[in-house]
Protein backbone atom coordinates (compact mmCIF):
# COMPACT_ATOMS: atom_id res chain seq x y z
CA UNK A 1 0.00 0.00 0.00
CA UNK A 2 1.29 3.45 -0.92
CA UNK A 3 0.41 6.38 1.31
CA UNK A 4 -0.86 9.54 -0.34
CA UNK A 5 1.86 12.10 0.22
CA UNK A 6 2.25 15.71 -0.90
CA UNK A 7 5.78 16.98 -1.53
CA UNK A 8 7.03 20.39 -0.54
CA UNK A 9 10.54 21.80 -0.98
CA UNK A 10 11.63 24.71 1.19
CA UNK A 11 14.80 26.58 1.94
CA UNK A 12 15.77 27.03 5.57
CA UNK A 13 14.59 30.66 5.70
CA UNK A 14 11.15 29.55 4.47
CA UNK A 15 10.63 26.81 7.08
CA UNK A 16 8.30 27.58 9.96
CA UNK A 17 9.66 26.95 13.44
CA UNK A 18 7.30 23.97 13.74
CA UNK A 19 8.48 22.50 10.42
CA UNK A 20 12.12 22.89 11.45
CA UNK A 21 11.48 21.27 14.82
CA UNK A 22 9.53 18.43 13.20
CA UNK A 23 12.17 17.59 10.61
CA UNK A 24 15.06 17.79 13.11
CA UNK A 25 13.12 15.63 15.57
CA UNK A 26 12.40 13.01 12.90
CA UNK A 27 16.02 12.99 11.71
CA UNK A 28 17.17 12.43 15.30
CA UNK A 29 14.60 9.67 15.75
CA UNK A 30 15.81 7.81 12.67
CA UNK A 31 19.55 8.45 12.58
CA UNK A 32 20.53 8.97 16.20
CA UNK A 33 18.06 6.70 18.02
CA UNK A 34 17.06 3.96 15.54
CA UNK A 35 20.44 3.67 13.80
CA UNK A 36 22.35 4.35 17.03
CA UNK A 37 24.65 6.93 15.41
CA UNK A 38 25.78 9.47 17.95
CA UNK A 39 26.59 12.62 15.98
CA UNK A 40 25.48 16.23 15.77
CA UNK A 41 22.78 16.11 13.12
CA UNK A 42 22.19 19.88 12.70
CA UNK A 43 25.47 20.61 10.93
CA UNK A 44 25.03 24.18 9.66
CA UNK A 45 24.47 22.84 6.14
CA UNK A 46 20.73 22.98 6.89
CA UNK A 47 20.97 26.77 7.04
CA UNK A 48 22.85 27.30 3.78
CA UNK A 49 20.81 29.71 1.61
CA UNK A 50 20.62 27.17 -1.24
CA UNK A 51 19.94 24.06 0.88
CA UNK A 52 16.51 22.58 0.23
CA UNK A 53 14.43 20.57 2.68
CA UNK A 54 12.12 18.18 0.82
CA UNK A 55 9.21 17.08 2.98
CA UNK A 56 6.56 14.49 2.18
CA UNK A 57 3.41 14.98 4.21
CA UNK A 58 0.68 12.42 4.68
CA UNK A 59 -2.95 13.44 4.21
CA UNK A 60 -3.22 14.06 7.96
CA UNK A 61 -0.26 16.46 7.88
CA UNK A 62 2.33 14.19 9.50
CA UNK A 63 5.86 14.25 8.12
CA UNK A 64 6.14 10.87 6.37
CA UNK A 65 9.37 11.22 4.36
CA UNK A 66 12.22 13.70 4.12
CA UNK A 67 15.56 14.44 2.52
CA UNK A 68 17.93 17.38 2.33
CA UNK A 69 19.34 18.68 -0.96
CA UNK A 70 22.65 20.57 -0.86
CA UNK A 71 24.10 22.86 -3.52
CA UNK A 72 27.38 22.14 -5.32
CA UNK A 73 30.46 22.71 -3.22
CA UNK A 74 28.89 22.17 0.19
CA UNK A 75 29.35 18.41 0.74
CA UNK A 76 30.65 17.44 -2.70
CA UNK A 77 31.72 19.43 -5.77
CA UNK A 78 28.36 18.33 -7.24
CA UNK A 79 24.80 18.84 -6.02
CA UNK A 80 24.08 16.26 -3.33
CA UNK A 81 21.34 15.01 -1.09
CA UNK A 82 21.24 13.13 2.15
CA UNK A 83 19.40 12.64 5.43
CA UNK A 84 17.04 10.45 3.39
CA UNK A 85 14.36 8.89 5.58
CA UNK A 86 10.86 7.55 5.91
CA UNK A 87 9.15 7.86 9.30
CA UNK A 88 8.73 4.48 11.01
CA UNK A 89 4.94 4.49 10.77
CA UNK A 90 5.12 5.00 6.98
CA UNK A 91 7.73 2.36 6.14
CA UNK A 92 6.62 -0.38 3.79
CA UNK A 93 4.33 2.03 1.94
CA UNK A 94 6.72 2.50 -0.99
CA UNK A 95 7.57 6.15 -0.37
CA UNK A 96 11.26 5.83 -1.22
CA UNK A 97 10.76 5.97 -4.99
CA UNK A 98 8.42 8.98 -4.93
CA UNK A 99 10.76 10.77 -2.50
CA UNK A 100 13.77 10.19 -4.74
CA UNK A 101 11.83 11.17 -7.86
CA UNK A 102 10.65 14.40 -6.19
CA UNK A 103 14.26 15.15 -5.22
CA UNK A 104 15.52 14.58 -8.78
CA UNK A 105 12.80 16.88 -10.14
CA UNK A 106 13.68 19.57 -7.59
CA UNK A 107 17.40 19.28 -8.36
CA UNK A 108 16.75 19.53 -12.11
CA UNK A 109 14.56 22.59 -11.49
CA UNK A 110 17.18 24.39 -9.40
CA UNK A 111 20.39 23.10 -11.06
CA UNK A 112 19.48 22.02 -14.62
CA UNK A 113 21.72 19.26 -15.95
CA UNK A 114 23.76 18.98 -12.75
CA UNK A 115 25.67 15.89 -11.70
CA UNK A 116 24.55 14.52 -8.33
CA UNK A 117 26.96 12.94 -5.81
CA UNK A 118 25.74 11.17 -2.68
CA UNK A 119 27.16 9.12 0.15
CA UNK A 120 24.77 6.19 0.62
CA UNK A 121 24.62 3.23 2.92
CA UNK A 122 26.26 0.43 0.95
CA UNK A 123 23.24 -1.87 1.03
CA UNK A 124 21.30 0.77 -0.95
CA UNK A 125 23.72 0.83 -3.90
CA UNK A 126 21.47 -1.32 -6.11
CA UNK A 127 18.40 0.73 -5.15
CA UNK A 128 20.05 4.01 -6.15
CA UNK A 129 21.42 2.30 -9.25
CA UNK A 130 17.85 2.11 -10.57
CA UNK A 131 17.93 5.91 -10.69
CA UNK A 132 21.22 6.15 -12.58
CA UNK A 133 23.65 6.34 -9.64
CA UNK A 134 26.97 4.53 -10.08
CA UNK A 135 29.75 3.90 -7.55
CA UNK A 136 32.36 6.67 -7.40
CA UNK A 137 34.37 5.52 -4.38
CA UNK A 138 35.49 2.43 -2.59
CA UNK A 139 33.25 1.40 0.33
CA UNK A 140 33.99 3.18 3.62
CA UNK A 141 32.59 3.21 7.15
CA UNK A 142 30.79 6.28 8.46
CA UNK A 143 29.22 6.34 11.93
CA UNK A 144 29.76 2.58 12.14
CA UNK A 145 27.74 1.90 8.97
CA UNK A 146 29.21 0.81 5.59
CA UNK A 147 28.77 3.54 2.95
CA UNK A 148 29.75 4.20 -0.65
CA UNK A 149 29.79 7.37 -2.73
CA UNK A 150 27.53 7.28 -5.77
CA UNK A 151 27.41 9.63 -8.77
CA UNK A 152 24.58 10.32 -11.19
CA UNK A 153 25.66 12.17 -14.30
CA UNK A 154 23.59 15.18 -15.30
CA UNK A 155 20.79 14.61 -17.74
CA UNK A 156 21.27 17.86 -19.65
CA UNK A 157 19.52 21.17 -19.16
CA UNK A 158 15.77 21.22 -19.69
From TrEMBL:
It comes from the Bacteria. GO terms for molecular function: acyltransferase activity, transferring groups other than amino-acyl groups. It holds the Pfam family Acetyltransf_10. SUPFAM superfamilies: Acyl-CoA N-acyltransferases (Nat) (SSF55729). InterPro entries: Acyl_CoA_acyltransferase, GNAT_dom. Residues 10-152 form the N-acetyltransferase domain. This is ElaA protein. It comes from Lysobacter enzymogenes.
